[in-house]
Specification:
Length: about 240
């Protein structure tokens, strides 16, 4: 599995399996299947209401915890220092783990500064190996990064061939913040898999549309990928 190095030195898998919109009742099975085919990064969130399913699948997998990379996110109803602090402990309990590899603020609304202070504290305590944000536009990211002790290490945003976040990536690079893509296959929207331009490129190089979309030379499992119900996540 290829990895990328975050600003604090933590190695993060470049591809992961996201469980957005995965029914809590199905989450354990889906994550178990994803782990069996080679995924080691699992992306969940408090707002997905399926952290327990992720935790159950991990507990039953037999895979050493240090070989896995768990991502979760604090939802806006838990923003503010006190509520965010309590929600991090709740996520740890639901996931059945002593630490979360990457914890993000899910959206740039409400008291995100108080919530981020809770992330920083949990990071210093060893409960979180890395911290960051999600869906932050450049102005949100720049403002936060310049007003906190530990700048965000990751910003997870929608990124794919139709929305490449070119300008946003420039600001992230300046801040030492990795871009993490949700929906790198555009969630199949806009006729993604039958797009004539992508099909033509794929035909020329003997690749599928999904393979054309992925970064050059990126094939962590030696096959086009696996997506039984959730979403593929990429970190660039």
């Amino acid at each position: 599995m290829k990895t990328v190095k975050l600003s604090n030195g933590v190695e993060m898998p470049q591809i992961g399996y996201g469980v957005y919109q995965v029914d809590p009742a199905e989450c354990e099975r889906c994550v178990s299947d994803a782990l069996k085919v080679g995924y080691r990064m699992i992306d969940t969130a408090q707002a997905y209401h399926n952290e327990e399913g992720v935790g159950a699948a991990i507990a039953k997998s037999g895979i050493p915890r240090k070989e896995l990379f768990i991502v979760s996110k604090v939802w806006i109803s838990n923003y503010g220092y006190g509520k965010a602090k309590a929600s991090i402990d709740a996520s740890l309990h639901k996931l059945g783990t002593d630490y979360i590899d990457l914890m993000l603020l899910h959206q740039p609304f409400c008291d995100r500064y108080g919530a981020y202070r809770a992330l920083e504290e949990a990071y210093k305590e060893g409960k979180l190996r890395a911290i960051g944000v999600s869906n932050f536009y450049p102005d949100h990211l720049i403002d936060l990064a310049n007003n906190v002790e530990i700048p965000p290490m990751v910003n997870q945003v929608e990124t794919h061939v139709f929305d490449q976040q070119i300008d946003a990536q420039k600001y992230m690079e300046e801040l030492g913040c990795r871009i993490m893509s949700w929906g790198p296959l555009a969630e199949g929207r806009n006729n993604f898999f039958t797009n004539p331009v992508l099909e033509a490129i794929g035909k020329k190089y003997g690749k599928s549309v999904a393979q054309v979309e992925k970064p050059q030379g990126f094939d962590p499992f030696g096959h086009p990928g696996f997506d039984p119900a959730g979403k593929i996540i990429l970190t660039l």
